[in-house]
Amino acid sequence: MSCCLLEFCRIQDLKSVRDFLFQNLRTATTSTAAEHNKNTNDKDLNWEDADWGSWEEKESDEAVQEESVSAPHSASWLQDCVLSLSPTNDLMVIAREQRAVFLAPKWKTGDSGREEMQLALSWSGALNAEEGECVSSAICIPLASQKRSSTGRPDWTCIVVGFTSGYVRFYTESGVQLLAQLLNEDPVLQLKCRTYEIPRHPGVTEQHEELSILYPCALVTIDGFSLFQSLRACRNQVARAAAAGNENVQPPPLAYKKWGLQDMDSIVDHASIGIMTLCPFDQMKNASILGGYHATLKGSPPAMSQYITVGAGPFSGFYYAIEGSSQPLLSHVALAVASKLTSALFNAASGWLGWKNKNEEEPVQKQKPKMEPATPLAVRFGLPDSRRHGESICLSPCSTLAAVTDDFGRVILLDVARGLAIRMWKGYRDAQVGWIQVLEVLNERELDPRSAPPSPQGPSRVAQFLVIYAPRRGILEVWGTQQGARVGAFNVGKHCRLLYPGYKIMGLNNVTSQGWQPQTQQVCLIDAATGSLRTVNVPFHLALSDKKSERARDMHLVKRLGALLKAKELSSETVETEAKNILQDIKYPAIKKQALESLLSSKNVPLSSLTSIAQALLDSLNGQDPEGVDEALLQLCSSQLKLLQLYTDIEKIHSEGAGQDSTTADTDLSSVLRLSEEELSRIQALLQRYREESGRPSVSFAQDPGVALPVRSFLSQMECEEGTVRLSRGQDSDWIQLGSLFFWRCLCGESAPYRICQTLQDSGISPQQLLSLLLSVWLSREREVLKSLETVSCLHSLLTLLSSMTGAVEESWDLQSVSPWWQQVRSECSQAESPGAALLAALVGHSVAKSRVNQVAEKKFQSPEGMTDSWEALSLDLEQWGVLLRQLEDCLLLQTLLSCPAPRGAAGGAVSTSRITVRGLLEAGRGGVADSVAKWVFKQDVVPRLLKAALGKRRAAESQEGEGEEGSSSEQPETEGEGRGFQRAAELLRAVCQRFPCSLDPDLLFAHCCWEYVVQWNKDPEEGRYLAWSVEHLRCICNAHIQHGIAVMMWSTFIVKRFSAAAFLMDKVGKAPKDRLCRRDVGMGDSAMTSFLGSCSQLLQTLMEADVGSDEMGAPLLEVEDPWQCVEGPASIVELALEQRHVHYPLVQHHYILTSILHAIMRFSIKSVKPLGLFDSKGKNAFFRDLTTIQLLPSEDMDPTLVSLRQQFLLKVLSGWVQSVPRDDSCPPLALLPQDQAWPALAVELAPVLQVSADVLRRHLVCELYNYGLDPLAEEVMLQVEDQEVLASQLLILTGQRLAFALLHTQTKEGMELLARLPPMLCTWLKAMDPQDLKNTEVPLSRTGRLVSRVIDALPENHGQYGLALHLVEAVEAMGAPQ
Asked: H or E segment at 497?
């Protein structure tokens, strides 16, 4: 994890290149130089192991090694050449004077037999076009492809060459000249390029591409976009000209800016920073310095292009060119006439085209193009140093820093933005510098830049390193910028060249640059002796560390390790090797401990690799000085290695099977569990029944016992201290997995229990923790355990082995004390949610405990006669075992009942039934069992009368009610079907009630069912059936005290609030409200509110009956079964009900009247009635008060107006009821629902309470029934009318209406003849009748005859209408006589 030099390419025939460029230099073999370089490399200092700061202290005394004068000149020939390497490594240019060599990469087989990349000669020749000019600078610029399939990739590389004549010429890779430009007559000093880079942060100015050309007194910048388009056009034109032989080639013009640099004595190098904008403070500072006190400011700071030059007088100068101050110039081509330019172009490419002989010469045209004047640009400020001369400047990749070399052997670091020298290195004469920018890589996939998407959390951190090559010393150094230390140093020889392009591909933008990223080398070191090209690889973490801060470096190594562990493509061997190296590189023990912990918690590292890594680290620590080793790290490493070894041993024992185990399990369950055959059969029957009910098809996740516990989960639950292993319980799933690793195969008979227990005991794990693991596994695998009862014998063997361990059962345990060991077993079983497995575990524990008790008794009571088999010791533990077994059997049967599936389509089937435990029932209070069964009843959607029949109470009353309901034949098939489906569950319910005779007393069960249904109704008020069934359950309670208390609690808790809202709403609208209003104010629809009001009426009626009945019977005694005497917890519903105060009967009756009124309004949609308006102020104030308080109620003297309103309301109720009665002859009138039959009786019942005459209501009812043609019902009610004379007068009119319709409105011939024979008085009276008031005109004449007869019987002979009635009798007889 340190700096390294990597060779990525090699020049194929370096000797041929040198011989071509240096014709006057004698050919010399490169073996001497190679041997010299090898000897130098053998003396490479191991700088990483030394103190990083020691060399700085001796730097002042160190003498700079000067190159020997007698060294062969052939080794330093590369220093005299102009070099340029493309940033994409696809082309290299080496030029000297007029000659140049182009090298292109090729893959060839090297000496070692591997494929390696070599730079081979692709073109060589002379580049000068004028006499005496030489190459002074060159760069290789890769141009982006415009093809859609290769967006962002380089298409071809353009070679830009500057000459001493001032010309700048552009060539292809094959040496064909594309364009020649004369921008200034002075020699070209430097060519530099800037390509597009995506801004790293918002707000950073986006820099454009450009090519900058430096002359001694001028600087020319060519826009990158213009240059890119021109070069593409020239390349296309040259290709077409070469194909067609056309000489008319018109090179496009270039847009450039030319600045005349002033106020510097000499300039040798430059750096184009790009466009920048001053902050407001810097703008005001510059304005005040330049303009004085009265300087003015523009609204926004102007955008400026910044340039830095180095040379002399001053040492470095800072220039700022305001954008828009100089218009771009359109340059003239090198030759004015296109044909002459073409001839010169073909002259340079004659060898390639092959059109003329080498000996042929053409006269050279001396015509010079017109020169554009330069725009003066004054230096803003500089770093004055009269003796110091700058030699080169190198800009950092992020354009914030620049490294400058000078003739004093110094390297100076400049802050570009502030114009300050912030650091200086000395002892680097003739230094060559470059930059390396490194991204922080936390994901291994990002190592390949082509697959690195932009992070959604923002850009990664970036570190910059300065690379300095000192040829006089033959050393290459890597430095952290600003305050960073030296992070790398290499002896590379004295005849190398350091190349740093500082740019990438031209022609990209913010879209295309995000695609394919080329593999580029930021710096390149060329060795003139061997021809190798090497680059420097610098890890990011070196930017975080210096000689005083290794902690940051270690933390980065930890991050690197985390990224390595997350990588999916790497093999386990690679991860193991890299992890070992990282652990060795980390210096701080605490961070090394953190790295080891993260490694052990990884899920991608196999067990063998973890063991190897931990062993290697432990060996490394043991090999160090004991005083310098961190004890915590050493203990962690040794303890984790011990745990890994324990995991390996357990897996090994499991893989060997159970063949060599010394213990054999007894397969006879009766002897294992110490039970008789009858008891064992009973237990097996209980388990079989439970398995059938709980084993119904359901969605669940299968538990695969073969899935091994991950090593990280194993280690996370184990702690090793001083050679003792202690378990730390985490999540239940991990704890069960750990127990499965230890014991499951032993329970299945596939592994040796003795060897497992012995291995675990040797590891130091306490028996109590092993017991907890064993029971957790057993209780969590109930389904598998119940399938195969042979596992009981294996559990017996394991529990016996664990009980015999040291520290399990105390030696001081006697028969009169409770052992904590057995108490732990009982506690685990009582908390288990799987009663079947818990019962088996308790039976096994009871058997093992009984054998231990007998052993203790034998030791304590030794007798010479010996002990017979029938003798059995008693102890306090065995008594508690007996209680627990009885409780577990009860829970098993209760859970069997609760596991019964709900019938298909049941409304309560979606309610989940929680698993019960012994402890849960003990802490649920006296009503815990009844509450669980009540939830089951709701889930089963059991009709209350079916539940009552199943409990065997009031069967005679139920049968009598069934005989009274013969009319409801439509419900009988459904009810019978429900009864048949409920038979199996009813049998289970009766069995549970036999186990819980006190807790499941019918009154207690009905009370809890009542409360459960009302709670569910409160959750969903739209289900009015829930509330109706709740009231039915309430009516099934025999004890009036319980019934009274439950009713009071229901009213005050759930009912009264919604009831008051319904009353106020109906009083406000004066009729039955619409569905929308009901939902808004009451929280339910109109149909649900009708059912709700009916249930309220039944509830209050039941409450009044219970209040009367409570005076005639005593309060019940609540008892509990013997095994459950220690139950504790919240008070049950029945206990709370018995604590309720008695209600005030008149107040309940007052509310009952209101509920009946409201129910009638909703049931029959009665309009124009305000229910609260039927009561006076006292009555209104008494509503919705606590029913147990005494309120001021209305007196008997009522206002006649209110009485009249009440009478009208009751009459409307009776009329509405009559309208709801079916009038079909096929359906008898009595075929009504029971609640509908009660309305007339209810109205008559309420009449005296509301001070309304009941006889008026009966007469109205009789008239309404006759009016609707319901004569049989009317005859029954007519017998109850007291004032028959008044009723007869009313019925006489109704009879006349029927006859008038039959005679006058049918218009038959027989009717007309009969009408003519009638007495004139009767005809006149009949014509005065209006038959339109009849609701049913299709009444048989025989019924009308019976009606007239009843009228005659009811009227006295001295009545004024008696004669009219006689005439009606004659008329009816005449109409009924045959014609």
From this structure: strand 496-499
Band the pLDDT of 1376: cuts 50, 70, 90.
low
- Pick from 1286, 1266, 1268: which is nearest to 1277 by CA? 1266
For the packed helices 1024-1035 and 1002-1019, what is the interaxial angle rounded to 10 degrees?
160
Please report, as a single letter, which amino acid is at residue 59.
E
CA distance 514 to 415: 29
The closest alpha carbon to 554, from 571, 539, 565, belongs to 539
Report pTM.
0.63
**Which sign, positive or negative, has the C-alpha torsion 441, 447, 453, 454?**
positive
Residue/partner pairs of 843-847 with CB below 8 Å, 24 or more apart: 843/673, 843/675, 843/683, 843/792, 843/885, 844/672, 844/673, 844/792, 844/795, 844/796, 844/799, 845/799, 845/881, 846/673, 846/674, 846/878, 846/881, 846/882, 846/885, 847/672, 847/673, 847/674, 847/796
State the alpha helices, DSSP H only, in 1250-1283.
1254-1267, 1271-1278
DSSP helix/strand/coil, 413: strand
| Cβ 268 vs Cβ 391: under 8 Å | yes
The mean predicted confidence, pLDDT, of the chain is 82
Non-local (6+) Cβ contacts of 525 within 8 A are: 5, 469, 476, 492, 496, 497, 498, 499, 533, 534, 535, 536
* pLDDT tier at 541, thresholds 50, 70, 90: confident
Query: Can you read off the two tokens belonging to residue 170?
Result: 């552009």
- Evaluate whether 488 touches 3 at the Cβ level (below 8 Å): yes
Question: Residue 498: which H helix or E strand, with range?
Answer: strand 496-499
Beta-bridge mates of residue 486 = 479
Give CA–CA dist 75/495, Å, rounded. 6
pLDDT confidence bin for 981, thresholds 50/70/90: low
Pairing relationship of beta strands 92-96 and 82-85 according to DSSP bridges: antiparallel
CA atoms of 208 and 1241, how far apart (whole Å): 99
In whole angstroms, what is the distance from residue 23 CA to residue 114 CA? 34
Q: DSSP assignment of 871-925, as one string?
A: -----HHHHHHHHHHHHHHHHHHHHHHHTSPPPTT-GGGGSPPPPP-HHHHHHS-
3-state helix, strand, coil in the chain (%, to 5): 50, 15, 35
Q: What tokens does 216 get?
A: 């001694």
CB neighbourhood size of 938 (10 A)? 24
Of the listed ranges 321-335, 376-390, 950-964, 1355-1369, the one predicted with least confidence: 950-964
10 Å CB burial of residue 1006 (0-12, 13-18, 19+) is: buried
Q: Which token pair is 524?
A: 């390149």
Q: Are strands 432-439 and 375-377 parallel, antiparallel or unpaired?
A: unpaired
Residue type, 1082: V
The CA-to-CA distance between both ends of the chain, in Å, stands at 128
Backbone angles phi, psi at 709, to 5 degrees: -70, 130
pLDDT 10s digits, 1185-1201:
999 999 888 887 788 99
Q: What is the pLDDT of residues 301-353, one digit of tens each?
A: 888 999 999 999 899 999 999 887 666 665 544 333 333 333 433 343 333 33
